[in-house]
Amino acid sequence: MKSYEVNFDGLVGPTHNYGGLSYGNVASQSNSQQSSNPKEAALQGLAKMKALMEMGFQQGVLAPQERPDVAALRNLGFSGTDAQVIEQAAKQAMPLLVASCSASSMWVANAATVSPSADTADGRVHFTAANLNCKYHRSIEHPTTSRVLGAMFADQKHFAHHAALPAVAQFGDEGAANHTRFCREYGEAGVEFFVFGRSAFDTRYPAPQKYPARQTLEASQAVARLHGLSDDGVVYAQQNPSVIDQGVFHNDVIAVGNGEALFYHEDAFEGTEQMLAELTTKLTKCGGNFKAICVPRSKVSVEDAVRSYLFNSQLLSRADGSMLLIVPQECQNNERVWQYLQELTSSGGLIREVKVFDLKQSMQNGGGPACLRLRVALNETELAAVNPGVIMTPPLYGTLTQWVDKHYRDRMTETDLADPQLLLECRTALDELTQILKLGAVYPFQIN
Description:
This protein is α/β, with parallel strands linked by helices. The chain contains 19 helices and 15 strands. The radius of gyration is 21 Å and the shape is globular. It starts with a strand and ends with a helix.
């Protein structure tokens, strides 16, 4: 039976704005309060989805959240009509209104951790929604994320869904941004690679000094247990605390893996040699041949990696066994990074081609190609059981671009977030979107 890695990209929401909400994310903070363009952001994301679809890759779409999140504001003491809640928040606590309007759910690499059926004890694909409790504006996402994923992967014969872990610091979980899977074939058993920034209980692990380490070892271990993964099929590794302090808030800012390959920066991890040896041994037992592609600091500094998002790229397997790297335009604009990529692709190694995409709107808010997609390995039967409304096709692409043109603003500032009309616009758009994607009622305004 054939199997596939399906990329489900996050559709950028109508309130896409530069709130500067993510401490530790250099791009997010650097562009705080600048004017954004939601329409352009959504169309840039859709263009990437369309391009990958046309290259022959399986591509899907994941719906955004309802924003502003009026229910979250009510939980914080604002009251009255929806319009009055927004007005009160704007006058009394503008940072809370900005947080309730964040379109950060576009970065669906943080939506959940996914384990394919070949790895799990019960032979189903397992999803655990990420609690994202390190940042308030993201911690409010997981209830809707769970409903959307449940509507996309509804067949309980093939798919299992777990609630987010307890929303406390000890179980900080950032989803697939700190999770990679290695395998010979997507439908065969593989090795799941969990990367954590700190341990909540074990003081032997060093911690960063400047920025928070968002993923805990304990959260990663809990997800592995929930998914029924075997000890032989799991490797845990710690991020280098010093690179977290340089803006590497998730592992996918400093490393990316796919198939049998890990593409990573020399300074990405603690205990790199031991980690690579464990990955090699365990993947060999699964019939695979692990390949490590290390980018030396002498070629690309951590600063250049963070500025360009070289590693926040998509590493895609081609039929001939080679790999394609999808990078943001910022890589091409960085002389040292682009020189390295030219050397890499001309060396005759595994990564033989680089394709560049303009994702400026997402990049300025702190997310690149890898942030925008959730990878789900599926066999043919499982793919057939996925809600067909979320699988990208040429007609769906055309419908979604028309939907964006109809509903999205082309300019968004902090002042715009206080406009009660924005909430009505967003709800109208999302109500139509759930019909397009055949999701049913997944948003609070549709349920309550």
